[in-house]
Structure formats: C-alpha cells, structure tokens
Amino acid sequence: MQMFMRDSQFSYHSKTCLQGEETHHNNPSPNPLRNGGGRTENFLNGGGKQESPIYTHNKGKYQGKILYPCIMASEPCFVYEKNGFFAPAPANIITGKENEMKYLTGLLNSQCVYFAMRRFYMGGGIEGELKTNNLLKLPIPQITKSNQKIVDKIITLVDKILESKAKDSTTNTSKLESKIDILVYELYNLTNEEIKIIEGK
Q1: Is 118 helix (H, G, I), strand (E, B) or coil?
Q2: How far apart are the C-alpha atoms of 33 and 31, rounded to whole Å?
Q3: Cβ-based neighbour number of residue 59 at 10 Å
Q4: What separation, in Å, do the N-terminal and C-terminal C-alpha atoms of the chain show?
Q5: C-alpha–C-alpha distance, residues 21 and 39, integer Å
Q6: Under 8 Å between Cβ of 170 and 73
Q7: What is the dihedral of CA 90, 48, 110, 30, to 10 degrees?
Q8: Which of 24, 45, 32 is nearest to 97 (CA)?
Q9: How far, in Å, are 15, 26, 79 from residue 176 at the CA level?
C-alpha cells in the first residue's frame, strides 16, 4: 500500500478531476463515505513516497483508492473511489488493495478516528489541517485473525453505503455509519466512558 501527495509533476490528461463539493463527505461523487494495532506508517507500507506522473499505462495502479483533502475542519472526508477520478491539489491519495481501502475508509471516517485526528494529529497553524506525516502516526489496527470478523463487518457496511449512494445520492446512510462507529469502538477496545467522551455525552 502506498500513500502519496499530488504535486506539480502529476499529469491530468485523460483524468477526471473532482472539485469542491464533489469531494465533500456527504456528496456521492464518487460515492463518499462519512464516516491498538500498528501505526498507519506500517499499515500503509511505503508511506510518503512521491509518485511519478500518471499515464495511461499505469492507470490500473490507481483504481480502488482513497482521496482526501488537506483540511477537514468540521468532519472527516475520506472518499473511496474506483472510477478513475482524481482530486486537484491540495489533496492526497491512498492506494492499495480494494478490501484494505474499504476497511481504511470506514475507519478514517469514523467518529473515533476523527476525534483522535482532531485532538492529536491535526493543526500546526491551520485549523483542521491533516499533514501526511501526522496521518502516518495514527494508530491503525492491522488486520489479524483475531479482528478479521470486525474488519469484514466494516467492509460489508462500507459496501452497503457505496451501493446505496450509487443508486440514490440523497440516501441517508447515517444508520450504517453509526454501525461502523460501533465496530471501530470495538476494534480499539474502548470503554463506555471513553465512547461517551468521543460522542460528547
């Protein structure tokens, strides 16, 4: 799995770019999702590597990816995308195997992980700014035999949300998102008191 940042070297020829509201958390283009173990740096094997320009011959390399903006001041905005869309800078892209990307999408958009981001990994001068080096420090549970069932449930819910949004972009998927939140709490072994703090209760 690799994480990389867009820069001036990237070619936008023959690529569809998402702009503004299209990458918003609740906008379904392309079907975005709202939303310890090892560090993200280990989970995202080879993190921080700058990629070469995108051409037709390596298009498949970027299928099944997560797009996210550099600033997320009010809510998480990690968009699972597999239709060849790209976001203009400043934005980042995470690539990897399809199921890993769906798992990561559900995780990164959860209340639990966004709470941690806001408290410990965002900022540094700009409200809601998430730098790649800080994201790499985020503790992401590795997929193991012991948590595989939870991971599979998260992926299934992510699929349901993506399918619902594909059929009707106005579909309210908050109930499915809440189920992901519960699974993520379980994944991190949080207590009821810790969950109340995250949910502001």
Answers
A1: helix
A2: 7
A3: 12
A4: 37
A5: 31
A6: no
A7: 50
A8: 45
A9: 31, 13, 16
Single-letter amino acid code for the residue at 52: S
CA-to-CA distance for 50 and 3, rounded, in angstroms?
8
Residues near 15 by Cβ (< 8 Å), separated by ≥ 6? 54, 84, 85, 86
Query: CA neighbours within 13 Å on the CB side: how many for 77?
Result: 25
Q: Other C-beta atoms within 10 Å of 133: how many? A: 11
The CA-based angle 198-143-101, given to 5 degrees, is 80
* DSSP state at residue 23: G
Can you list the residues of the chain whose pLDDT is less than 50?
1-57
User: Interior CA angle at 59 toward 158 and 165, to 5°?
Assistant: 25
pLDDT tens across 35-82, in order? 334 444 444 444 444 333 333 445 555 567 888 877 777 788 888 888
pLDDT value, residue 33: 40
